[in-house]
Amino acid sequence: MNHEQFSDEPEDEGYSQLERAAAASRCTWVSVIVNTVLSLTQIAVGVLSKSQGLVADGIHSLSDLIADFVVLFASHKGKEDADDGHPYGHLRFETAASMVLGLLLLIVGIGMIVSAVFKLQTPESIPTVHVAALWVAVAALAAKELLFRFMLRVAKKVKSSLLVANAWHARSDAASSLVVGVGIVGNLAGYPILDPIAALVVGGMIAKMGGHFTWDSLHDLMDRSADEQEVATIRATLHNTPGIKGVHDLRTRKMGDMIIVDAHIEVDASISVEEGHAIAVCAREHVMRIPRVLNLMTHVDPWRRPDLDH
């Protein structure tokens, strides 16, 4: 995910992968309970009150349940240790899951757009709904908004892009409930056309959001670098390590929400290989203290004083 999702938050406190997974698990089980209750209530009341919008919103809530289980599975898989087949661990499983969530949002958004277009073509086919549908839509909107704020707060605290994606999925469902509420109010007031128009607008917003998460995750899977601030911190840490005369070819890549670093460090050409190795080990220890850095690979290059080159 893009680092900008975390830019307004306090500095990362250095949460371990186990702590990240535990936070994801707690948030997601809360979401599972909320979405189960909401989807069953919305579908049942929607059928009884003749509200097609409420039934559709209940089905949308079911899509959140699918997303929740994807998050649970990804969090469990992502915290597995490295093995022979995956020497760098399984952290990118979370990135892949974020892309799945983005695709799910994209599909749901396109589905809402298509449904809204059909409704706009035949507005007379929309039946008058019972007022009970409105109360359920309002309750669903409140529950989804509270769930979104809770999940986003935890996601930014532990800097988990997967949880950020799932939190915004909850917000998309809140927007869907808002659309349903507006549509029901319009239906009760004698303006049924309001429902498909609002659904068309929000469907576009959800599809755009899904496209954003999918594209972002794709870049992370293609070894997107860390943000400039984190790279600058890593570079400064290397420069401040005793014995290092220079740093070049510093490269970073995302591994889930963690960072892998490659760097060439320059040490005095007159020292022994053992001393050069000790400096590299010290540099790795310092860089590994930076939050989110998973590993540092160094290449030691000889450095000579410029006035002694000739």
From TrEMBL:
Annotated Cation efflux protein cytoplasmic domain residues: 227-302
Signal peptide (UniProt feature, chain positions): none
InterPro entries assigned to the protein according to its UniProt record, in alphabetical order: Cation_efflux, Cation_efflux_CTD, Cation_efflux_CTD_sf, Cation_efflux_TM, Cation_efflux_TMD_sf, CDF_Transporter
GO MF terms held by the record: monoatomic cation transmembrane transporter activity
TM region positions: none
Keywords, comma-separated and alphabetical: Ion transport, Iron, Iron transport, Membrane, Transmembrane, Transmembrane helix, Transport, Zinc, Zinc transport
GO cellular-component term (any): membrane
Gene3D superfamilies reported in the protein's UniProt record: Cation efflux protein transmembrane domain (1.20.1510.10), Cation efflux protein, cytoplasmic domain (3.30.70.1350)
Subcellular location: Membrane
UniProt keyword Membrane, yes or no: yes
Keyword Transcription applies: no
Domain Cation efflux protein transmembrane: 29-222
Membrane topology: Multi-pass membrane protein
Main location: membrane
One BP term from GO: zinc ion transport
NCBIfam families per UniProt: CDF
Recorded family membership: Belongs to the cation diffusion facilitator (CDF) transporter (TC 2.A.4) family. FieF subfamily.
Protein name per its UniProtKB record: Cation efflux protein
